[in-house]
Amino acid sequence: MIPIYLQGNSWAHRLPAGLKLLTVALASLVLFQVADWRVFLACLAGVLLCYASLGKQGLEQLRLLRGLSILVLFLLLLHWLSGTLIEGMVISLRLVVMILAANFVSVTTRLDDMLAAVEPLFWPLRAFGLSARKPALGVALVLRFAPHLLLIYGVLREAWQARTGSKNSWRLLAPFAIQSLRMSDHVAEALKARGGSEGLSR
Fold it and tell me: What percentage of the chain's residues is helix, strand, coil (to nearest 5)?
């Protein structure tokens, strides 16, 4: 499995996990109120600069855009056919910016730190005798691996195009599901080796 976290000591690595997650969450809320595609172009440039600040490894993470390309093209096509191309550009740019921002948090934040930042949100569950750590782990894993699933799809799509000349096919669904299940197995084995959801260091 391709590792998500990039080892390093950059400015982004040194920022607290909670601050990064809060920044992305608040930025997402604000961006949902924006309808100017030029604002999103500026945001996209800012996010790309963040990746560039991590060096070569950071720029390599932009392979994620390959997996997003088919979805973006589909959205643009639908809006072009309906005569709302500008709206389609806004939606597509918003999607790309938000996913890249979430992935940037993942590659610069250890899972333990992300889990520690998310877990306090579920502390009220303790009043009912329920674990706060398990749902926090679920949220942290979704935040961490959703961009990686897009990367997997992008790799499969490129391999299919190299073999057949066609960019997309429903036949990609089966290998994508298999790769996703393999990734979940790797994650489950790693968690089990560390004692499960309670075995992660606090």
Answer: 80, 0, 20
Q: Domain range holding 85?
A: 11-198
Is residue 4 assigned to a domain? no
Contact of 145 with 187, CB cutoff 8 Å: yes
Lowest mean pLDDT among 28-42, 78-92, 126-140: 126-140
Phi-psi region of 2 (alpha: psi -120 to 50; beta: other; left: phi over 0): beta
Within a domain: residue 193?
yes
**Residues 58-97: tens digit of each pLDDT:** 888 887 777 777 778 877 888 888 888 888 898 889 888 9
Which residues have a Cβ under 8 Å from the Cβ of 160 and sit 6 or more positions away?
Answer: 166, 167, 168, 169, 171, 172
Query: The tokens of 10 are what?
Result: 């950059």
